[in-house]
Amino acid sequence: MTGEASSRPRLRADARRNAEQIRSAAIGAFRDRGLGVPLEEVAKAAGVSKATIFNRFGGRIGLIEAVIEELVAAELYAIIDRARSIADAGERAGYYIAEIRDLQYRQPAANDVMLREFPRSRQLMEICRTAGGFNDEVVAAGRAAGALRSDFTADDLQALITDNALALKHGDRPRREDYDRRTAFLLDGIRATGTASRG
């Protein structure tokens, strides 16, 4: 009995270590290539079997939910919080859209979230709901202040974000300088006529 009892803490420690290795490997793989990276590759990077991922996390959805907060949500929510702190509605909209596009460029997993690629993940869908609510908020405030075109809607902003996610996920990756130039074109295009660009 003593030997059996002493083996239990070791097994629990091994399980915790395996889980943390899997989380770390998943964050690295998902950050670089998106949430659809084959689980075999995550398992190999973690030094475990694919079956261990299922044993510890129940599969891809469970693994996504174990890392999505650190991987995407924390940064996205920080962008939203920072945007809310900007008093000028036009500057707020410009900051938010530019930062979202920057996140999309740097973070393939963010595009999977914005495209709702894994709708069975409640956490992923909650991130989408939060971002969608802020899209409504930032556009309404920008229009009310006369900073954004009166015909620019939250649906238009969502479509621009979705189109960008699709282009980055399935198209050729643009050079960063070209991407940033196009962000400036987009921001100029949605500003109200006569509103000066503030960079």
Question: What attributes characterize this protein structure?
Answer:
199 residues; 9 helices; mainly alpha; single chain; Tetracycline Repressor, domain 2
Verbal overview:
The longest helix has about 30 residues. The chain has a single domain, classed as Orthogonal Bundle (Tetracycline Repressor, domain 2). It is mainly α and about 200 residues long. About 30% of the residues are buried. It has 9 helices and no strands.
Short synopsis of the structure:
77% of the residues lie in helices and 0% in strands.
* Count of domain modules: 1
Bin the helical content: over 70%
Topology, number of strands: 0
Low-confidence stretches: none
Instruction: Tell me the number of helical segments per DSSP (H or I, 4 or more residues long).
Output: 9
Order of helices and strands: HHHHHHHHH
By CATH's scheme, which homologous superfamily applies?
Tetracycline Repressor, domain 2
Gyration radius over CA: 21 Å
End-to-end gap: 70 Å
The helix-and-strand class reads mainly alpha
Gross morphology is: elongated
CATH class: Mainly Alpha
Biggest sheet statistics:
none
Q: What is the topological layout?
A:
Blueprint: H1 2-33, H2 39-46, H3 50-57, H4 60-84, H5 89-106, H6 108-114, H7 122-144, H8 154-170, H9 176-190
Helix pairs in contact: 1-2, 1-3, 1-4, 4-5, 4-7, 5-6, 5-7, 5-8, 5-9, 6-8, 7-8
